[in-house]
Amino acid sequence: MEKLKTIKKECKIEFEEKKSKFIGYVKPVFSKEEAEEYIRHIKNLHSDATHSCSAYKINNNGLEFFKVDDDGEPSGTAGKPMGDIINYMEVTNLVVIATRYFGGIKLGAGGLVRNYAKTAKLAITEAEIIDFIDKKDLIFEIPYERLGEIEKLLKDNNIEYTENNNTYILTKGDSIAEFLRILNLTNFLLRFEEKRIQKEYMNNSNRAINFEIANMGKIIKTSSEQLALFEKLRKEGKEEMLTKKQKEFLDVRMENPDISIGEIAKKLRNI
């Protein structure tokens, strides 16, 4: 499965174009609700702005959510070019907002498209594109004096982790499951394993769907080539060059252009 990309951090950029001030905001998000909340926050922050246009793309449990908003700009001149940049840069799980303060000079439709696209591209580039890792935070508050016990527990049980400012980060599924088991956090462990199973199911389903789509593409290509060859022979009056079996094959193919060669063979056995 192709790796997803996202952005590393929230950030802000700004520039001016013909006295119009463009301010771009971008933030990593993991749900539609989080994206919409951030859009509301920026709109409230710039309640005096002429427009605050937005675009977001979310991948959540195998489902994709994509939305653009022109916020009063001419249709297709703001949210859409921002969404196009998101797709062009192949990133997901982010929201981009472009706030514009009108400077008195009209930019025209082409100018709006260019500058809203520019805002999205600059903001996403500034936020740094990274590989997307689907993760959930499980936070346990532990007294400082007991941190040594936790570190010993992790080491004694060969649980892989990284440490950052007295925060222990477990990234591998098996390590997290083992940690929860050792602490006897049964409910957390069951919920965690359920999520792992759901994710594996979705990944396997997506792989199966992608395989079927690719296979269907090959079947259609093969079918069209076979029919094109038959049509060429027919136009040139060379149908008699075909054997009886070849003619039977092509008859079945013409009636069933979307089935595989194996399925054609089954039908021929029944003729």
Give an account of the 3D structure:
50% of the residues lie in helices and 20% in strands. The strands form 3 sheets. It has a 5-stranded antiparallel beta sheet with strand order 2-3-6-4-5, with helices on both faces. The chain has a two-stranded antiparallel sheet with strand order 1-7. The two termini are 41 Å apart. The model has no long low-confidence stretch (mean pLDDT 77). The longest helix has 50 residues, at 186-235. α5 (173-182) runs antiparallel to α6. With 271 residues, the protein is an alpha+beta fold. The chain has 2 domains: 5-131, Impact, N-terminal domain (Ribosomal Protein S5, domain 2); 199-269, no CATH class. It contains 8 helices and 9 strands.
Nutshell version of this structure?
The protein is 50% helix and 20% strand.
What's the layout of helices and strands?
Elements: E1 5-7, E2 11-17, E3 20-28, H1 32-45, E4 51-60, E5 63-69, H2 79-88, E6 94-101, H3 108-127, E7 129-131, H4 147-156, E8 162-164, E9 167-169, H5 173-182, H6 186-235, H7 244-255, H8 261-269
Antiparallel strand pairs: 1-7, 2-3, 3-6, 4-5, 4-6, 8-9
Helix pairs in contact: 2-3, 5-6, 7-8
